[in-house]
């Protein structure tokens, strides 16, 4: 099966890089699925979104992302997020507590919702 190079990078660190067969992400224009050979595209990631990567080995990597961009070429996908966390590193109970306590802090709500969705999709 065809593969592409994928990098998932947040401002503070690189979360994952390697070969993959599929990437899906939530953009401001809707959800996008990218396979090797996809037409070039640049998309803006939603606040509190989720990115899922199917590796060349068949493993599924899921991350909560908050803002940033997705850049696609025929052979690579680069995800540049303002902040991101792998689903396996998320404390889902803490994220749910933020949802209950955040009141009208829309940014905190978006981040917490993204964290919960990432864990649910992993």
UniProtKB/TrEMBL annotation:
Question: Where's the ATP synthase F1 complex delta/epsilon subunit N-terminal domain?
Answer: 4-84
- Top-level taxon in the UniProt lineage: Bacteria
Q: What is its main location?
A: membrane
Task: Give the location in the cell.
Answer: Cell membrane
Question: How does this protein lie in the membrane?
Answer: Peripheral membrane protein
Which Pfam family is one of this chain's hits? ATP-synt_DE_N
Entry-linked InterPro entries: ATP_synth_F1_dsu/esu, ATP_synth_F1_dsu/esu_N, ATPsynth_dsu/esu_N
What keywords are annotated for this sequence in UniProt?
A: ATP synthesis, Cell membrane, CF(1), Hydrogen ion transport, Ion transport, Membrane, Transport
The entry's family comment says: Belongs to the ATPase epsilon chain family.
Its quaternary organisation is:
F-type ATPases have 2 components, CF(1) - the catalytic core - and CF(0) - the membrane proton channel. CF(1) has five subunits: alpha(3), beta(3), gamma(1), delta(1), epsilon(1). CF(0) has three main subunits: a, b and c.
Entry function: Produces ATP from ADP in the presence of a proton gradient across the membrane.
Any idea what this protein is called? ATP synthase epsilon chain
Organism in which the protein naturally occurs: Rhodococcus tibetensis
């Amino acid at each position: 099966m065809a593969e592409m190079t994928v990098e998932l990078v947040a401002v503070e660190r690189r979360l994952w890089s390697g070969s993959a067969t599929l990437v899906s992400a939530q953009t401001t224009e809707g959800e996008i699925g990218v396979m090797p050979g996809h037409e070039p595209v640049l998309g803006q990631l939603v606040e509190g979104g989720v990115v899922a990567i199917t590796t060349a080995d068949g493993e599924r990597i899921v991350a909560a992302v908050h803002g940033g961009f997705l850049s696609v070429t025929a052979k690579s996908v680069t995800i540049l997020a303002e902040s991101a966390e792998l689903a396996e590193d998320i404390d889902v109970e803490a994220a749910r507590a933020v949802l209950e306590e955040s009141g009208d802090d829309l940014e905190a709500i978006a981040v917490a919702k993204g964290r919960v969705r990432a864990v649910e999709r992993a």
